[in-house]
Amino acid sequence: MAETFAGSGISGRTVKAGAVLPALLLGLTLLVSYQPVMAADAGPDAAVPSAPLSVADAIEKGRVLLTDNCSRCHAIGAEGASPHKEAPPFRVVVTRYPADNLAEALAEGLVSGHPDMPEFVFEVEEVGAITAYLNSLEPKTE
Questions:
Q1: How far apart are CA 100 and CA 28, in angstroms?
Q2: Maximum Cα–Cα distance for the chain, whole Å?
Q3: Per residue of the chain (142 residues), what is the pLDDT tens digit?
Q4: How far, in Å, CA of 96 to CA of 42, rounded?
């Protein structure tokens, strides 16, 4: 069964039921475990790659990013009302749009039709953390 998410800003894409979680887990695993290879002759000013985040650390980093950038208007947790009456709580957003469907928009520039919402652009590592956190808000099915 395929479902199209109208109004998601991602036109013409469908998601097959049951395919979202495995795809997200694979993407998150690849994102979190990616380590750039440093050249042997890289100088002392070369960037040191960070260690991969655990799933728990990714979820916490995503929570912090959303608190810092979004909580002024959105309820970001498992309960509570949004401070801005027209901003849906993120626990509701993830029931409408799976978090991995939002990943591209988070990386390229999340734009809403709502005039009060600013545009946000996140780095790849931040997108992985945000989607990990948003997935933690999805209702658990047994």
A1: 9
A2: 55
A3: 443 334 434 333 343 444 444 444 444 444 443 334 434 445 555 555 566 789 999 999 999 999 999 999 999 999 999 999 999 999 999 999 888 888 888 888 877 777 788 888 899 999 999 999 999 998 877 6
A4: 46
Contacts 24+ apart (CB under 8 A), 30-39: 31/124, 31/125, 31/127, 31/128, 32/58, 32/128
Q: How far is Cα 69 from Cα 73, in angstroms, rounded to an integer?
A: 9
82: tokens are 């949004």
Residues with Cβ within 8 Å of 47's Cβ and at least 6 positions away in sequence, in order, are 36
Q: pTM of the full predicted structure?
A: 0.62
List the structure tokens of 49: 């790659």
Q: Which two tokens stand for residue 8?
A: 């998601």
| Of residues 35, 17, 32, the one with CA closest to residue 62 | 32
* Residue type, position 57, single letter: D
Chain position carrying tokens 């945000």:
130
